[in-house]
Please model this.
Amino acid sequence: MMNQFSHLDKDGKLHMVDISPKTFTERVAIAKGEIIFPEEIYPKIFSQDVPKGDFLACAKVAGILAAKKTSELIPLCHPLPITKIDIEFNFLPEKYSLEIIGKVKTVAQTGVEMEALTAVSVAALTIYDMCKSLHKGIKINNIRLIYKSGGKSGETILE
Model:
């Protein structure tokens, strides 16, 4: 039976995967997350009237930095030459929420799923930090991978 957990060796011990035999291919990953705000503060969020300032610009920069540092945060991730990082925000007033979309791209021997997920996570945490003075009931929800391409598994669309 083939080991299904790539971070475990044949004896079941943790190790960093050897990616040296893998082919360099263009790889893309897109992650998404959502921040839900209490209804009473959503007008301030929507109009971006927050005491700490431009929370979206700050979150974008934080998410970009986080994606670049993923291998320093997640122990078994490889450092990768990231070629593009983009973070978008979409207001969803009907849900009193803000959607975060992080897209990361590389040409490498392994994918950038963790980098996209880290970008969205840190962007969300930054928004929480900058908006928490308005209300402590802000929720970070549903951070997930929605797309990946490249490598031997090809394209995967999850949403």
Summary: The mean pLDDT is 93. The radius of gyration is 18 Å.
